[in-house]
Amino acid sequence: MMISERLNDAVNSQVGNEFGASIQYVAIAAFFAAEGLNQLAGRFDVQANEERDHALKLVKYLLDTGGRVAIPAIPAPRNEFGSVAEAVALALEQERAVTAQINALMILAVEDRDFAAQNFLNWFVAEQIEEVANMDNLLKVVKRAGEQNLVYVEAYVAGQASQVARGPGEVEGA
Q1: How confident is the model over 47-66, as pLDDT tens digits?
Q2: CATH number of the domain within which 93 lies
Q3: FRET pair for 113, CA 20 to 30 Å: which of 37, 50, 84, 86?
Q4: pTM value?
Q5: How far apart are CA 15 and CA 157, in angstroms?
């Protein structure tokens, strides 16, 4: 086994955290869809898939390093929100928590002098910078628009999705 027992256990816990985040994003997407906010629902559907992919990436790492996979129980997601801002704030809080969890994994990898794990976890460290920044920015936009102007938030999210589809530096219609 190329991975220490304690790091193996911590990675298994993170698999659960990532699956939990995925399920929470599904619940947030369903909340938005029920409110007729299809762009926000779509964004959180994509986010749910990303979190699931993160969990699977961790599972593959455990398997590749001869570790054992033991996926923990996943807590039920929160399904009810008083506002769009409340739902997005929960997502931002979740991304900050995941960042702390990834950092804790990195600390274990450093303490174990597990250079392969450090290399692997560097991707997650960088990913969390993007995840927190994106969610923080979305929350700012939602708060600035207010509940009465969510149509602007929908347009903003749709514009972001079209930028991602085109890629950086590409011009529409070019």
Answers
A1: 999 999 999 999 999 999 99
A2: 1.20.1260.10
A3: 50
A4: 0.90
A5: 28
